[in-house]
Write a structure and sequence with these properties.
- The protein is mainly alpha-helical.
- It has one helix and three strands, in the order E-E-E-H.
- It has one helix spanning 24-102, and strands at residues 2-3, 8-10, 13-15.
- The protein has a three-stranded antiparallel sheet with strand order 1-2-3, with no helix packed on it.
- It is rod-shaped and about 120 Å long.
- InterPro entries: OBERON, Oberon_CC.
- Residues 27-54 form a coiled coil.
- Keywords: Coiled coil.
- Residues 25-95 form the Oberon coiled-coil region domain.
- Pfam families: Oberon_cc (PF16312).
Length: 103
């Protein structure tokens, strides 16, 4: 709290003491300023809430894509194992047929 002449100042707001009158116009101007600041603050709060919502949505989307990528990776590994098994089986059959022809 500071005393800067004509009234008492607290956090940038002037409170009138008995010896320093403030005009009605000045009070109305200050009331409009306060209302405008409150509206601006509310608008900024809404913007922050919207951005938070977008961030949560994008995070959920990223998690979904991570899950899909993991599923695709597992499917790829499964198919590779099948191909390897079939390749080995084919090789065994070829060797078996080769031995059979030699007999």
């Amino acid at each position: 709290m500071k005393n800067k002449g004509f009234g008492l100042w607290i956090r940038g707001l002037r409170f009138v003491s008995l010896g320093s009158p403030i005009s009605c116009t000045e009070l109305k101007d200050k009331a409009r300023e306060v209302a405008a600041l409150k509206m601006d603050r509310q608008r900024k709060k809404q913007q922050i809430d919207e951005l938070d919502s977008i961030v949560r949505l994008k995070q959920a989307e990223a998690d979904m894509f991570d899950l899909k990528a993991s599923e695709a990776r597992r499917e790829s590994e499964r198919i590779q194992r099948i191909v390897l098994a079939k390749s080995e089986k084919s090789e065994e059959d070829y060797v078996y047929i080769g031995w059979f022809k030699l007999l």
